[in-house]
Target: YgiQ family radical SAM protein
Amino acid sequence: MSRAEMDALGWDSCDIIIVTGDAYVDHPSFGMAVIGRMLEAQGFRVGIIAQPDWHSKDPFMALGEPNLFFGVAAGNMDSMINRYTADRKMRSDDAYTPGNVGGKRPDRASLVYSQRCKEAYPDVPIILGGIEASLRRIAHFDYWQEKVRRSILMDAAADLLLYGNAERAVVEIAHRIASGEPVANITDVRGTAFIRRDTPAGWMEIDSSRVDQPGKIDRIINPYINTTELSECEVEKRNVQWFEYEDPRSKRPDEHKLTFHPRARLDRDLTVIRLPSFEKVSKDKVLYAHANRVLHLETNPGNARALVQKHGTQDIWINPPPIPLTTPEMDFVFGLPYARQPHPAYGGERIPAYEMIRFSVNIMRGCFGGCTFCSITEHEGRIIQNRSKESIIREVEDIRDKVPGFTGVISDLGGPTANMYRLACKDPKVEASCRKPSCVYPGVCQNLNTDHSALKELYREARALPGVKKVLISSGLRYDLAVLDPEYVKELVTHHVGGYLKIAPEHTEDAPLSKMMKPGIGAYDEFKRLFEKYTKEAGKEQYLIPYFIAAHPGTSDEDMLNLALWLKKNGFRADQVQAFYPSPMASATTMYHTDKNPLHKVTYKSEKVETAKSPEQRKLHKAFLRWHDPKNWPLLRKAMAEMGRQELIGDGENQLIPHYKAGEEQLVYEAHRRKNKGGEHQKRVGKPNTGKPVQAAASKPNAGKPQGGKILTQHTGLPPKARADFGGKPKPTSKPKQRGDR
Model:
């Protein structure tokens, strides 16, 4: 990270310099650390420029000119998502920055960093990578500008783009550049995108640049003919004989009829699909939705074809996705000599993203859930890449023995999804040819192996290690898979839940769930039944915390009202709510932008998706999730009256919010927060401006409480301490071991 370190190592220059928008944390959860260690293992000298001041080129020259290339990444998050909320408000913090300070990276960091690298050393190749590059590799809808932007490769003027987890690709490219091959000639590496002007010889191009093909052309009828008069109709029929004219030469005996044979099967390795151009998708929303659908159909490494999209006079060429890493390769990547700590230059300053994963272990990559609002699939793929049990256990032991501050608790054994470890298609041939966007929607595929035995064995061995007191599971759980293996649910609930377990049904209504590709609420109910059963058998006090999304495409006001009623009936008060965030390239973002559903064939007459786009409607949908907050009651009353649902306004048990009462404006609902000092948990409901506690639901003492009498909070999953205004006695509750964020 500095010239002083280079001098200590005896380096006169770096072979490769990685520029990143995150603080440098040498941990396998941080992309720049993984790529840096991989290249180091190949013998390259790697420098890291982390969170440089982008206002001039000078910080980009701190390590000198790299011998091979600059590797540029915005960080572990898309820089726009990192800097702005779903309401487009700038965040004041940044979890990937020392001290949680915001503003240490620019908007569209990949573009800015690339520009500064080019200013610093114009002749050095620039290779883009990371999730920002992955999600913006083709023309994409940009939520912050409300328009379709060009491929990031065009705007960054970079030489090559790597998408996905690109260990294999970056190693091959580094060796080829080191051997003297021009970067412009490297066009055959999977998982890369580049700019070219023509289709090379020997390739077959499939035109998928439009959605509607011309049909039969009907002859124009004479507008002056009265078709009720039969005689005139007969005249018209005689006049159309020329339309049925047949060339007499076609009947010559010496002529041979031309016969067309079915097209020969194309070689996938030499086939490219042409998407609608940037100019077309930026003006035609239907063509945008079509292009997004084609891209998602070409994501299986076993059968994906190359894609090409014209931008002006040039083409963006996207090679098929990378072949998933094998278990030995995954073990190699995670077995590299990571320090597992932030760089010493930060002086021990707290980096929240590191604190979150400090004592966690990533056991796999990828997700075959296919949730339309999620970007994991576009980046890591649908095929699960697993580490061996031995590799995972070694990492747990390294944490125990080497990481300062370890208290015996592993905070997570997981990944993108907690319980997809070792789950895969039963038949590799079927897996290689499958084009389904999800293995678990609309139901679990019959070809999917759902046996959690390997995961249960891993859990048992990890928690039996000396010095390990507890192993928690904090990654999101796919509960529709878990219920197929009740023994796994029992193992999880009995040993690996720290007071609460978060899962994400996302909604209760079929309309939005079908657009999310999520299971119905019945799967949640079944998991809840098993969770409570095994919790009771274990003699523990543990709670399920469901997460929900507001304003997702396909969600109506009525759907959000029904969700709010479900929340009240089940006694949930959401302290933190998540509004749909249109990330680049996600299928749900396409629904948001185009009002079309790319999960099905897209035409100009295909299904229209209802979407909450206006700030007012998005605010209303969030208000339904926080039905218990007095400041939302005026908005909800107005909306429910307009919906004709006034019967749900009142003090009854089956009504959502109370009638207006004098002094209501004074009520302030304060979220339940975990105290940093002493670990004390409190439930704060309805405080007037005077500071004296009052009841938020200002009608009945038990209004809004479930029949069981406990109100769970989304933030902790634990019932609140009983207070005098609830008429109960204080009841001790177990404390969660950690805080989980969405």
